[in-house]
Amino acid sequence: MKKLLVTGASGFLGWNLCQIAQSEWDVSGTYCSHPIELSGVSLIKVDLTNFEAMKHLFQEIQPDAIIHTAAQSNPNFCQSNPELSHLINVTAACNLAGLCADASIPCVFTSTDLVFNGLNPPYQETDSVCPVNLYGEQKVLAELGMLARYPRTAVCRMPLMFGMAPPTATSFMQPFIQILREGKDLSLFIDEFRTPVSGKTAAQGLLLALEKFQGCIHLGGKERISRYDFGRLLVEVLQLPATGLKACRQQDVKMAAPRPPDVSLDSSKAFSLGYNPLSLREELQALNGQV
C-alpha cells in the first residue's frame, strides 16, 4: 500500500481522516501537543513549524501523498495571537508544499469557508476571497503560497464540520450536546449560515480530491443552515433536552474575531467528481447513540 501522511492526526478532521484512509493507504499521522493513539496508524510527534523537523519527517517516512489538516483553527485565538497562529497556518503550510514539490507527490490542503466575507453566497471557487478575520486571512495566504510553490496542490475549502471526535479535540457539536444535557442555556446564531458536513464525509471528500483534483475546490454540504436551526435538528434527532436552546444574533455575542454572516459554499464541482454528502438529518441519525 502507498504511504499517506496526515498532519494534525489528533485534531477533529485529521482523526476522522486517518480512520477512513486506512482501507486504501498505509497511514502515518502527526501530532504536536496532544498525544493520541489510533489503531492501524503510525503516530509521530513533530512540530510542523520547525522546518528541519519537517524535512527529517519526509526523509524518514518518504510518503507517497500528504493531506495537511493541522492548523490553529480557532478564529478568536488567531485574532488574539497573530504571530503564533501565522507560523502554523501560513509558514508551515507553505514549507510543506515546497517539500511536496521537491518530492513530486500529491498534496492536499484544508482551507476554510471563512476566506469569504459572507455577503454574496453561495460561493463558488472562482469568487473573490475577502476574509473578515485573521484566521481567514491566514488561510488565504496559505492557499496562495502553497499553489505558488506547488501548483499540483489541491486546496480544499472546508465548511463547518461535526461528528465523532477524538479525546484530544471536538467538533462544534460536542459542546452543544454537553450544555443541553446539563440543562444549561445554549444560545445559537439565527443570522450565521453555513453548509456543514460530518467529519467522515469531509474525510471522504479530501481523499477524492487527493485522487482527482488540483487547484481550489469546495467541499461543503448540500444544505444551507443557521447554527440555531442546526441546533434544533440536533435536539430532535439526538433527543436532547430542548428547553435550553435559545436564538441570538451575532451582534449579541462579543468575540475577538469578526464573523461573516453567510459563507455557504457551492460545491457543485466536487459533486460532479463524486463527492456526495448525506442530508444533515441522515448524518446525525448515523451518529445517534455514539455521541
Structure description:
- The longest helix has 22 residues, at 82-103.
- The model has no long low-confidence stretch (mean pLDDT 97).
- The protein is 39% helix and 18% strand.
- 47% of the residues are buried.
- The protein has two domains: 3-161 and 197-218, Rossmann fold (3-Layer(aba) Sandwich); 170-194 and 224-264 and 280-287, UDP-galactose 4-epimerase, domain 1 (Alpha-Beta Complex), CATH 3.90.25.10.
- By secondary structure, the protein is α/β, with parallel strands linked by helices.
Overall number of domains: 2
- Mean pLDDT across every amino acid position: 97
* Structural class determined from secondary elements: alpha/beta
Low-confidence stretches: none
Q: State the CATH superfamily name of the largest domain.
A: NAD(P)-binding Rossmann-like Domain
CATH architecture annotation name of the largest domain: 3-Layer(aba) Sandwich
Summarize the structure.
The protein is α/β, with parallel strands linked by helices and 291 residues long. It contains ten helices and 13 strands.
Topology at a glance:
Layout: E1 3-7, H1 12-21, E2 26-31, E3 42-45, H2 51-61, E4 65-68, H3 75-80, H4 82-103, E5 107-112, H5 134-149, E6 153-158, E7 161-162, H6 173-181, E8 186-189, E9 193-194, E10 197-198, H7 199-212, E11 215-218, E12 225-226, H8 227-238, E13 245-248, H9 268-273, H10 280-287
Parallel strand pairs: 1-2, 1-4, 2-3, 4-5, 5-6, 6-11, 7-10, 8-13
Antiparallel strand pairs: 9-12
